[in-house]
Amino acid sequence: MDEQNAQKIMFDYLTRTQVKELIRKGGKDGTNTTSIHYSYKDIHLVRHWHLTLKDVVESPFAFCLGKPVKPRPPATDQPSISNEKTAEGRLERIFWPHVRTALEASHPHLPEGFTKLFCDIGESARRHPAGIPDRAGRETDDIDTEWRINRLPGEVKVSWKWNSDMPTVNSRKTDREYRQVLSQLLFYMKDHMCRWGYIITNKELVCARRQILEDNIIEVADAIPLTYYHQPPYTWSLGPEVNGRYPEAQGELTALLAIWYLHMLASNDSLSDGWFIGWGPKRLENREQDDEGEEEDEWEDETEGEDEGEDTDAEEEAAQAKSLSTTTSTKDVEKQQDWADADAEPVGKSDPENPRLVITLRNVQAKPPKTAIASEDVEQQAQADAKPVGKSKPEKERLIVTLRRSKNSRKKPSNTTSAGKSKRNESSETATTRTSRPKATENSGVTTRSKAKENEKTVPAKHKPKVA
User: Fold this and answer.
1) How many domains does the structure of the chain reveal?
2) In 192-294, which residue ranges form alpha helices assigned H by DSSP?
3) Domain contains 20
4) Of 180, 329, 399, 467, which residue has the fewest beta carbons closer than 10 angstroms?
5) C-alpha distances in angstroms, 115 versus 44, 63, 66, 101?
6) Is residue 194 part of a domain?
């Protein structure tokens, strides 16, 4: 196999093509994209995906690596970038044309159960109101854009905002930014129900995937530099084909070979190991956007300080209330002490410094000073006000005597003498005689005796004389 034919083999084209380095010129350091729909807190675990050349050469579509391809000439200019937008434009010149060439050469040889995928921008596939990924592995143009599934979403970042070495830095802010980008990619993967995705920067490619029932876990493969390619003295080759695979292949993964492999994986329509994995669980509540840098942590610290300040203010107000209560006059103190000796039930507590001082009594009608009261004190005060007010002993005694007198006046005498009975009968007869005396009227036809009988009926039973 001569050199000219080797350049037309898919494997050689994807491993020997040199990608120009993108040089940073300008650009500001800052944070990555945030949204209420995804957050770095969504990433509970970042698991390693052991992706190697062996996975590629032993895949069901590995035989496509031996098919001929017409290579594109590599870019000769030295492009520069300053932000994500310029990085995406430069990659469209030096990187993505080679990927599209390899995919187009593989389409006629796809095995059964695979669909043609095209490497395109994210807006060429179905869109989500919450955001659109930068890249898409979409289906054919025969389907309308609103129904065109993005089987392989990708995100374009710049290396000074995100890179694969960020987890090695012992910094909370750096780890937060690293997981923030992963949460963005995971959100797009869930939204498009796909298993695979990737992040590409001006320096490297990072492949990712998710598993079923692991909605907050993302698996990340080792980063592959964009400029890494096959060059002497290395001898990379496919080796002999065995049942459509190349078990004796030698070499390493390049960025072009790895991104071609992801597109081929996403072409698989199988429900068991294909691109479709379904939606993740819907978020119960939207998260607010995190502030840039460490503002969120500073806000938490400030909040804790405010809470401590509130506690200090409450203690000061309690001390002021205590000092106000101790300024009660001596006369009031003696009066309160007398009530306390009379078993009056106090509402408040006694002053620990002066046990003789009772701060508040139910008998005291004076208005308390306007001071801030804690919620527990307010509840205790309300419960105390709901209780019936007690009475002192002198008042109780006077009340008992009055009730006894009124009761005795209404009670019938049980043991009375004959003299008392006759005297009561005489008084009753006198009252009856007085009430039975008729009035002189012109038309009166009623006798004195009948009138007296009617009057006797109107007299209460307790005033009627008893017949001996």
Assistant:
1) 2
2) 255-266
3) yes
4) 467
5) 33, 16, 20, 17
6) yes
